[in-house]
Design a protein that fits this description.
Distance between the termini: 89 Å
Protein name: Peptidase C1A papain C-terminal domain-containing protein
Strand content: 25-35%
Domain Peptidase C1A papain C-terminal: 66-273
Keywords: Signal
InterPro entries: Papain-like_cys_pep_sf, Pept_cys_AS, Peptidase_C1A, Peptidase_C1A_C, Peptidase_C1A_papain-like
Structural class: alpha+beta
CATH architecture of the largest domain: Alpha-Beta Complex
Radius of gyration: 24 Å
Largest sheet: 8 strands, mixed
Number of helices: 8
GO molecular function, one term: cysteine-type peptidase activity
């Protein structure tokens, strides 16, 4: 069989091109100093204060942390692979990938968000010279603008000046945190099924990672130099499924497997976005069964509130979660139950903004209720619990009127 020399030359040239392109891919992790870690922890702690345990109680669960395998792609919890080019902006791509994943899981919206906006504006990072994804979360948390869409601030593979923008994505940060110390495999899995993709740092400057095409990367643990996202696991392979930001030519269409506790993998962070208002009539679930009664938990955002999420649990078998984001709107958050006595648990997670500082407050109400007909209650924050940012909630007769 005669070999086409031109074809061989073309293949070799293309392989050389792609290998060279891979060598030029950016990395860009800048590990925070001890003081910077303390400042990140302080920002998050001051924001959520004593309510983290209550916050965790209301987290949705999108998978089984005890399952032998898990893949966010199987539950429509992941956006497409992107390419950071030669810019050291992996930290921004990792942050955006987690935000996009959270938005898909919480709001069922597939959005392409802007890494360039973070490269341009996150002052605690150095743009294409490297940065840290928790700095991006902190900046977004304190900034009350939407996360920009890719079409609004497209990626340019370079540093540009920061400019203000009026975002149209309806994506804001509700909360973020990181797994402290050296978390167990079980802790990482639990975070993944509760929050979606996790930002993580690892050691990529090795041939196993750079030239990866399949199998499991088990490079020696060394100082991390690159940020990716964990998007699943496989206990049979004893490996995490990662999504990289070097385009689809790397790995298995941009994804790869990294062994548990190898390759310097560390610094696991999660983020949650705010829940959107109900926008589809079908989501309102009108009462169709005449034997059911309607309970309407009404609320109007207060002068300091920029967001509130309402978690309603009835008799352990009915859970509803509602988002509220607009001023001067009376929200009707309805659930339907059978007539009679019921146990209920109501938790609110509210973001307030005062003097350009944002923080969370929480409300909680537990008790029993006897309903025989449709009823409407307003939610009222009462006394603090142990001088914390957690308040007792009271259900009172609905007398809210708008525009009077």
């Amino acid at each position: 069989m005669r070999i086409n020399k031109y074809l061989v030359f073309t293949i070799i040239t293309l392989c050389s091109f792609f290998a060279k392109a891979q060598e030029n891919k950016g990395r860009g992790i800048q590990l925070p100093t001890d003081n910077e870690f303390k400042e990140i922890f302080k920002i998050q702690s001051n924001y959520v204060q004593g309510g983290q345990k209550i916050y965790n109680l209301t987290s949705s669960v999108y998978g089984d942390a005890n399952a032998p395998t898990f893949d966010l792609r199987d539950i429509n919890g992941l956006t497409s692979v992107k390419d950071q080019g030669s810019c050291g902006s992996c930290w921004a791509f990792s942050a955006v990938a987690t935000i996009e994943s959270s938005n898909l899981l919480i709001n069922k919206k597939y959005l392409d968000l802007s890494e360039q906006s973070l490269v341009n504006c996150v002052a605690d990072s150095q743009g294409c010279e490297g940065g840290w994804y928790d700095h991006a979360y902190s900046w977004l948390l304190l900034n009350n603008k939407d996360v920009a869409l890719e079409d609004e601030i497209p990626y340019k593979n370079s540093d540009l000046s920061c400019s203000l923008y009026e975002g149209n994505s309806n994506v804001k940060i509700a909360n973020y945190n990181f797994l402290i110390g050296n978390p167990s495999i079980e802790e990482i899995k639990n975070a993944l099924v509760r929050h979606g993709a996790l930002a993580v740092a690892l050691y990529s400057n090795n041939t196993q990672f750079s030239n990866y095409k399949g199998g499991v990367i088990k490079a020696l643990n060394s100082a991390p130099d690159h940020a990716v996202t964990i998007v699943g696991w496989d206990d049979t392979q004893e490996a995490w499924l990662i999504k990289n930001s070097w385009g689809t030519a790397w790995g298995i269409n941009g994804f790869g497997w990294v062994g548990y506790n190898t390759t310097g993998i560390t610094a696991f962070s999660w983020v949650d976005v705010t829940r959107n208002d109900v926008i589809e009539e079908s989501e309102l679930e009108p009462k169709s069964d005449l034997d059911l009664v309607e309970i309407d938990f009404v609320h109007v955002l207060g002068s300091l509130q920029v967001h509130q999420e309402l978690y309603v649990k009835i008799d352990d078998d009915l859970v509803k979660i509602f988002g509220m984001n607009k001023k001067e709107i009376k929200y009707h958050n309805k659930v339907y139950v059978s007539k009679g006595k019921h146990e209920f648990e109501i938790i609110t997670k509210s973001i307030i903004k005062k003097d350009n500082k944002k923080s969370m407050i929480f409300g909680i109400s537990l008790g029993k209720i006897n309903v025989t007909e449709d009823v409407s209650y307003k939610l009222v924050y009462k006394s603090r619990v142990n001088e914390s940012n957690v308040f007792k909630l009271s259900l009172e007769a609905d007398d809210i009127k708008i525009g009077e």
